[in-house]
Design a protein that fits this description.
mainly beta; globular; four-stranded antiparallel beta sheet; 11 strands; about 130 residues; single chain
């Protein structure tokens, strides 16, 4: 199983970035894929998640409207379009996947790192003020 993120970088506040996660080694349509981030001196937190089986999408509070998650089944890839970026969005963004899509929805904790079995290496996002 592989998840490879790209698209991070340095942008000024108010700018946009599009993160990509290319996956391989598992049945993409059966998995949930999420973006989580690790901000400085804070715990890793969920940003957004998409269930590739039924299209269900979750966003963390404050993300919906600024961030949009999409999935391209033909390319086994998930994207995170981020707009109106703020310095507080600075951190390492990770792509992660789980086959236990119903479990995390039943528990209501898709934003928890423990719900994902496979992880990418992360991509750095830095927002300048």
């Amino acid at each position: 199983v592989q998840l490879v993120e790209s698209g991070g970088g340095l942008v000024q506040a108010g700018g946009s970035l599009r993160l990509s996660c290319v996956t391989s080694g598992f049945t993409f349509d059966d998995y949930g894929v999420a973006w989580l981030r690790q901000r400085p001196v804070k715990e890793r937190e969920g940003v957004s998640d998409i269930n590739n089986n039924d299209g269900t999408i979750f966003y963390a509070n404050g993300m919906k409207g600024r961030f949009t998650i999409t999935s391209d089944h033909a390319k086994s890839s998930v994207y995170l379009q981020m707009t109106d970026l703020k310095p507080d969005d600075t951190g390492v963004y990770y792509c992660a996947s789980t086959e236990h899509t119903q479990r995390r929805e039943r528990r209501g904790d898709w934003y928890e790192s423990r719900e994902y079995e496979h992880w990418g290496q992360g991509t750095q996002v830095t927002i300048g003020s």
